[in-house]
Amino acid sequence: MPSENRLALTLMFREYCSLCHKMRDALLPYQAEYGFDLEIIDVDSDPQLEEQYNELVPVLLHGGTEICHWFLDENKLRAFLNACRQS
Fold this sequence. Notes:
Blueprint: E1 8-13, H1 18-34, E2 37-42, H2 47-53, E3 59-62, E4 65-69, H3 74-86
Parallel strand pairs: 1-2
Antiparallel strand pairs: 1-3, 3-4
């Protein structure tokens, strides 16, 4: 469960998706450095999420805002996290 004062990101995920596993693993060093919570949601557990994110997974989100999909865009992620640190 996310902490109230910590930044929380969401990864839309599929268990059988190799890109999903790669993105989750690639997020670990950023999570250690920036201290954000990561919620992993299996899109196949909810028909609405499956319809919304079907061909985009993995998708990394902050709230309803997409940071990146398919592959971890390290530049976008770092820019987002640094902006959050400054605010």
